[in-house]
Amino acid sequence: MRAALFGPVSADDEAMGGVAETAIFTQWMHAIASFPNVHYARWPRGEVDLVHVRSDQRGLFGATEIKWSDRYFRNPEALKGLIAFAQENKLAEGVGATTRTQSGETVVQGVRIVHEPCALACYRIGRNAVEHRRIFDELGLRLESGVGAV
Q1: 117: domain range?
Q2: Which of 27, 32, 79, 146 is the most exposed place for a label (fewest CB within 10 A)?
Q3: pLDDT at 125
Q4: pTM for the complete prediction?
Q5: What is the pLDDT of residues 62-111, one digit of tens each?
Q6: CA-closest candidate to residue 37, choices 60, 65, 66, 67
Q7: DSSP 36-93
Q8: Domains of the chain: total
Q9: What is d(CA 94, CA 60) in angstroms, rounded to the nearest whole number?
Q10: Strand ranges (E), 90-148
Q11: In a domain, 72, yes or no
């Protein structure tokens, strides 16, 4: 849609950061019936693109920062908002950051960050949503759109 409105974007274009965020958010929107508790967090000194809230609303189980750059894999300390959020919410695990091409793990100030390429994240989110729906269908259960209730 972005290309139709504004013209094509190359992988090195400045706009790719927004395109990557849109792609990943869009995958989550398709998966929202299966995984309804995904939010954005912002506070005066930072923000986190995706915050995963437990289905029982009793805390968090993950946070992800969406980036279209390998810079944060090489310099994960620059993910200040994500690290601060993880520390404040005691998320030593379940913390992630997307990249352009790099996969791996880093540890910053006691926070383990799993890095994966944006394309792989989009695939994984979509695959998990389809698999989750298949299991519900096989069990004869019903997912309610936007609620995730059975």
Answers
A1: 17-138
A2: 146
A3: 85
A4: 0.81
A5: 899 999 999 999 999 999 999 999 999 888 778 999 999 999 999 999 99
A6: 60
A7: --EEEEEETTEEEEEEEE-TTSSSEEEEEE--S-SHHHH-GGG-HHHHHHHHHTT-SS
A8: 1
A9: 9
A10: 95-99, 104-108, 111-117
A11: yes
Residue 79, in any domain of the structure = yes
* Other CB atoms within 10 Å distance of the CB of residue 40: 10
Q: What average pLDDT does the chain have? A: 83
Instruction: Tell me the C-alpha distance between 17 and 112, whole Å.
Output: 23
Q: How many angstroms separate the CA atoms of 85 and 122, rounded?
A: 23
- Give the Cα separation of 150 and 144 in Å (integer): 7
Distances (CA, A) of 55 to 4, 34, 52: 37, 11, 9
Alpha carbon distance 112, 91 (integer Å): 9
Q: How many residues does the chain have?
A: 150
Which CATH number does the domain housing residue 95 bear? Answer: 3.40.1350
